[in-house]
Amino acid sequence: MKFRGVAVPFTLAVATGVTTAYFTSKLIARKVSRALTEPPPYKVSGPPVSVVIPALEEEDYLPALLTSIANQTYEPIEVLVADSSSDLHREQTEAICSSFGAKYINVPILNISLARNEGARQALGDPLVFVDSDCILAHDYIEQVVYALQHGYTLAHGVDPNIDGLFGAASVIGGVWFKPVTHTSRGVAIWRDAFWGIGGYDEACDPTEGGREDLRLGAMVKERYGLGSMILLPGACLVTSPRRGQRFPLIKSWERARGVRNGRVIEIER
Question: Of 19, 110, 149, 194, which one has the fewest beta carbons inside 10 Å?
């Protein structure tokens, strides 16, 4: 009887948490989707910002991301796409960039850290914002992270759940409620001097070999500037696609592939 008395409240708590996470994901989805269909409700100006986007066969995702950037409440924003696609995909990606006024940069070597760093080298703005190609930003995402930087922080980022697919609720729990401030995965804003002060993204940290160059960035900022130099903004929202969860049933080892696009594995070129 005592076991049952513990199990029932625990089960109820888990069910309540999952349900709350589900509805939270819907609220975030509604907030972010407005950036795809509505112009920004207002505009604020500040220092020129450069958004750097690494790309690899991202034609299906880039238009949504670039639309959400075009509909930001903040201005001015420079957009740079550092693309490592093959010839056919490169032409399509370059055409998309041209239609949105984004700067296209060809990075033939498959190294996401190198792509991000090359985009940062050619960027004119300060601060820098690094966003993955399969993200969508809420209207005020860049406004919020830049505001935090202007008020003394070295690095700022927001919550980044995957609100679609099987793991949507779990992603809200991990990507919103309990996301560590050092989990610098997507939507990271950082001052240029601080970024190069840590050497940029670690190009030796190869994701195809299990390395997380994005989390390494947060660790380096913490080591160099201290934990208090970083802030996680729960009100700054972006969402990511569910494709990262597709890799597990398709390949035995993530190290054998560069990525997954629409169920197709992109093998490492050796």
Answer: 19
**Prior bond of 76 cis (ω within 30°):** yes
Q: Which of 222, 211, 235 is CA-nearest to residue 155?
A: 222
Average pLDDT score over residue span 40-50:
96
Q: In whole angstroms, how far apart are CA 35 and each of 40, 107, 220, 222, 249?
A: 7, 29, 32, 32, 33
Phi then psi for residue 85, to 5 deg, are: -75, 165
Taken in order of first residue, the domains within the chain and their CATH numbers are 2-267 (3.90.550.10)
Alpha carbon distance 201, 199 (integer Å): 7
- Calculate the average pLDDT of the chain: 82
CB count, 10 Å around CB of 237?
26
CA 263 to chain centre: 20
Give the DSSP letter string of the chain. Answer: -HHHHHHHHHHHHHHHHHHHHHHHHHHHHHHHHHHHHS--S--EEEEEEEEEEEESS-TTTHHHHHHHHHT-SEEEEEEEEEE---HHHHHHHHHHHHHHTPEEEE--S--HHHHHHHHHHH---SSEEE--TTEEE-TTHHHHHHHHHHTT-SEEEEE----SSTTHHHHHIIIIIS--TT---SSEEE-HHHHHHTTSS-TT--GGGT--HHHHHHHHHHHHH-GGGEEEEEEEEEEE-GGGGGHHHH-S-GGGEEEEETTEEEEPP-
